[in-house]
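In practice, a research group might receive sequence data for several interacting partners and want a quick structural hypothesis before committing to experiments. The following worked case mirrors that situation: the sequences arrive first, and a predicted assembly follows.
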Amino acid sequence: MSKVPPDLRRPGVSRRGFLQGSSVVAGSLGMAVGAAQAQEAPASADARTITLTVNGKARHLSVEPRTTLVEALRDTLGLTGTKIGCNQGQCGACTVLLDGTRVNSCLTLAVMAEGSEVVTVEGLADPTGDLHPMQTAFAENDAFQCGYCTPGQILSAIACIDEGHATDAAEIREYMSGNLCRCGAYLNIVAAVEQVRDAQKG
Ligand code: FES
Ligand code: FES
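A structural hypothesis for the assembly, expressed as tokens:
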């Protein structure tokens, strides 16, 4: 794996025909949100209440100091679109946007995100259900196989363009290098990023 771009290193982070109807694909693309409403974990002596804005909605949740952001999203808020791969900052499966910056949510403590805005794959489609352009581009370019890495890839791809790091294929590869795909969909992932980049240029 090539080196992790500097902008992916954050405090506490050591590295880094569309099948509508398929639950795997739909989940990966954030279509079948189906997220449970917040089910707060049983309070413990160490638990504290934090407030996050998740996909545009204020959420209050009880977490322990050691609870990671991905655990809070998946286990407490029921937003299981964000995946856990390595759980140690090496695969990017857990990538979400935190105040607009991509982070590995497995290496981010939930309490560190207090007051922040979090965007997960469930928050990308608009309220009418129209997919985010990057979700559409992934589908159109067959940029996934099993789809497990896809939510993290999509969030990272959106950030890659927003950061201005999608000038050419080589740069896209470099700045997507923190997101591993065991299915090897990299060629098509790059194509998807290029499609959205070009569309945004008009
Ligand atoms: S980087 Fe977080 S699960 Fe792999
Ligand atoms: S599509 Fe299977 S891990 Fe990437």
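Before designing any experiment, note the following. The pocket of FE2/S2 (inorganic) cluster (ligand 2) is lined by residues 144-150, 181-183, 185 (CB under 6 Å). The CA atoms of residues 145 and 183 lie 6 Å apart.
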